[in-house]
Request: fold
Amino acid sequence: MNYIGSKLSLLEFLEASITEVVDNDCDSFCDLFAGTGIVGTHFKKRGYKIIANDIQYYSYVLNRHYIGNHKVLNFNSLVAEISGLGNIETKNRKDFVCDYLSNIEGIEGFIYENYCLGGTKDNDQPRLYFTDENGKRCDAIRQKIEEWKIKDLINDDEYYFLVTSLIESIDKYANTASVYGAYLKKIKKTAQNDLILKPAELIINDQDHVVFNTDINSIIGKINGDILYLDPPYNHRQYATNYHLLETIAKYDNPNIYGKTGLRDYSKQKSLYCSRRQVFNAFRDLILKAKSRYIFLSYNNEGLMSLDDIKEIMSLRGKYGYFTKEYNRFKADRSENRAYAADTTTEYLHYVICNN
Ligand SMILES: C[S@@+](CC[C@H](N)C(=O)[O-])C[C@H]1O[C@@H](n2cnc3c(N)ncnc32)[C@H](O)[C@@H]1O
Reply:
């Protein structure tokens, strides 16, 4: 997913830098501003036990699947429901189930009614987040997943795999410049194709992992893990508003919505890390409460906290240092014509080796 602040293209830098600092007896890795889960997933593949967290529910779903799921999904209870599924080799059943869902008939549900032209054409400002067809497909798939869960035809692991597959897939067909803070006036090319449910990657290993969905400062004192990796928002852009539609598809809770873009209430998900006034104290509190042996922080040179702020706070816990890398700025796609000051920023990985 094209996610603000995604570390997809920085994974090698992160791994090389972290490996340089930590002892090789570390076996747990905490990714507590987890977003897409790509960092935790990378270290899961390296054999670490992962503890992940994010304040957004769609992110919880992604991490509950990419991190939490680590065994084959056999879909045994669905065999009686989907003809042919029982004949499929267990490891391929998740693909078969996604194919089945890709082919069910669309439904005029919450997404179609509120975020597609067909459902909103009589509004003062019709919304054009998806084609009518994809809005209906999304509703039908999401409702079927929920129905299977309520009828106990899928277990939690299978449920989070399917909802993750839907979040990842629908995002590819969104009629936006990249985030959901606005939609485009005309349906762009990639949004015109019919939604296909692509199975999300399943990473099998023999470790149990833990995933939370809460404000990091409220759980940090209870998290024990050797390596703590922190990747907070860098600026004022709240994830709750930029990804509100993914939150609603993940929760599928028919929220009250408002405004031109159909926002849901996000008062409980406003991040202190997006506030110039509050970030210093929130970060200080976090660092002082952390119980890990090593703390790493990703941040760039244009974030709300200055380099001096970060150094001052992290040095409270022990020996401080940092690594840097030039990095391509997050960009919306070409249909959004913004003027950027420069194409690259300097990405920092700050660290502290904690005294206690
Ligand atoms: C820079 S992004 C993380 C990106 C992630 N490393 C990746 O590569 O996908 C920051 C994340 O922090 C989450 N977040 C913001 N404030 C938070 C808080 N107080 N507690 C937990 N998560 C928070 C946001 O929802 C967002 O997913």
The two ends are 37 Å apart (CA to CA).
